[in-house]
Amino acid sequence: MSKVALELCINGERHEVLTEPHRTLLDVLRVDLGLTGTKENCLEAECGVCTVLLDGRAVNSCIVLAVQCRGRAVLTIEGVAEHGALHPIQQAFIDHGAVQCGYCIPGMILSAKAFLEERPGATEAEVREMLAGNLCRCTGYQKIADAVVAAGRAVAAGR
Ligand code: FES
Ligand code: FES
After folding, report:
1. Three-state SS at 76
2. 3.40.50.970, 3.30.450.20, 1.10.150.120, 3.40.50.880: which CATH number matches 88-156?
3. 0.90 exceeded by the pTM?
């Protein structure tokens, strides 16, 4: 199959890739660009480990074609920390002991980031509903929900 040249904006940086048009954003991020913080698992939009932000909106990168991302801003977990400092959501996950194996965490953090920008004062019930598309096999979700609620307060306070 013939390849297409693609210019992608990932974490604020331009990247040029040459790829077959059927390849997913997840595949291009991990294989072509070495951005392996975005995880892969089900490959059918069920588990959320591949979540990235596309123009600020959380998407499952396993079902987004790379060619659909032309001219759009992609944010992966590698771009969440700002100026070398952890984002308040990342810090809250650490402070609340919300990480066990860690496999689901990049997707959780990106889903939470998009959500809290709209709803920083979200309740635990709202956070749990938002996280319904991000599965975790380890934690039981309580500490993750606590971390996201606390992070919302930090985001609202501008920290
Ligand atoms: S790998 Fe994309 S949702 Fe599971
Ligand atoms: S911390 Fe292991 S899958 Fe969530």
Report:
1. coil
2. 1.10.150.120
3. yes
